[in-house]
Prior knowledge:
- By secondary structure, this protein is an alpha/beta fold.
- Helix content is 33%, strand content 21%.
Amino acid sequence: MHLPASLAILGGGESGVGAALxxxxxxxxxxxxxxxxLGDAHRAELEAAGIxxxxxxxxxxxxLGFAAVVKSPGIPPTVEVVQxxxxxxxxxxxxxEWFYRCKPQHARVAxxxxxxxxxxxxxxxxxxxxxxxxxxxxxxxxGTGAGRLLLGDPAxxxxxxxxxxxxxxxxxxxxxxxxxxxxxxxxLDRYGSLEAYAQTKFxxxxxxxxxxxxxxxxxxxxxxxKLSQVRAQKYPIYTTEPQEKPTVGAxxxxxxxxxxxxxxxxxxxxxxxLQGKHNSYNALAAGLSARLLQVRSEMVRExxxxxEGLEHRMESVGHVHGIHFVNDSKAxxxxxxxxxLESMKTPVVWILGGVDKGNDYAExxxxxxxxxxxxxxxxxxxxxxxxxFEGRVEMYEEVGSMEAAVRTSYLHATxxxxxxxxxxxxxxxxxxxxxxxxQQFKAAVRxx
Length: 448
C-alpha cells in the first residue's frame, strides 16, 4: 500500500507517539504536534528517537506542509486545526488506518469494537491465540498503541481493540475478523445522537468483503437493524438460547455453549471462566473469532475455561473485615455499570462519578433500588448524579477524592456487603485515565 512521503501527527498520547515511532522506523520524515503538554515519558521517547515535535499549540502552517496527517482519536473532528487540514485536501487518518497501511502484507487482523466488552474480548482472543502458539500481537485502544505493534518482529495475527473515535478516519482499514460486541448510548457528547454513534461503530465493516467475517450480538436490536450494510460473512452470537438454532455463529444450548464457524465443524464448551451474561458474549465472540482464525477446538475450549479476566474490570481487590471491595474502574458508561450491578449478589455501596458523557441514569434506577444501599458520588461535578440518586438509596454522600470515597464507603458497608467502584463516567476530572483511577482505588483499600 502506498505510504506518504512525510507525515504529521496530531496528538502526543500513546496512539500519536506510537504512530510517530512507526513513521521513523519506516524512514518517513515526521513531526508531532501536541496542543497541550506532552507527558514526560512520551517526550523522552520522541527525543530519543530524534522525532521533531511541538507542544502547547499547533503550528498550522508547518502542518500544512506534510503529505498526510495521523490524528489521535481524542481530538474531535470539529477542532479548527483538523478543519483547516481537511479543507486543504490533506489526507487525515486514524492511528488504526496508519497501522493497517504499514502492517506486513501476509498478516491477518482481528478488530473488536462495541460500547461494552471490547477490552475483555480483545484480551481473551489474544490469550487464546497466544496459548495456541500463534505469532500474535495485541493492542490498539488497549495497552500498546497500534503503531508500536509494528516496531518489533512482524506478527502473523494482530488483535486490535478499536474505539469509535479510531474508526472515524479509516479509508481502507479492513479487518479479516471484525467483532461488534453491542451498541448502547455512549459518547453522545461527541456524536449528538445514538444513530450517528451506531453508524460510526459500523465503519468497522466498511471495507470488508464476503471473504471476511463479522461477528455481532444477535440480541442487540441496534446492531441487527444495520446488518443490511455488511458485506462480510455474518456470525450471530446469542447469550440466551435461540428458538431457531443458526447454521453459523454461537449460542447457549441447554447446559453448554455451541460454536459453529462452519455447520460441519461445530464445537461445544461446558463452562466459561468468567460468569455473567455479558461475559458469555465476550467468551463466545473470542472463541468463535479464534476458530475462524484456525485455532483448534481443544485449544479454544481450554482457553475459554481458564481465563483470569482483566485488571479494572470487575476485579476483586480483597476483603477488609468481611467487606468485599471490587474495582470496576473501566466501567465508563451506564451500560457497563448496569452489568456490574446486575452481577452483584450482596448489598452494594456504590462509588461513581467523573466526566459525564451524556449518561441517562434512569436505566439504572430499578437495579439501584433493589441492590444499592449507599451511593458515594466522587468528583467536582456530581449535580446530575445527585438529582438521579439522592432519595433512591438509604444513604447518599459526595466526596472529592478517591481516598475519601473508599473511607466513606467503608464506614457505610458492613460485613458480607460489597463496595463497588463502577464509575459510569470518564476519568479525566481527577485522574490520568481509568487505570490511574483503579490503582488509586486499590491503594486506598490497602490503607484501610
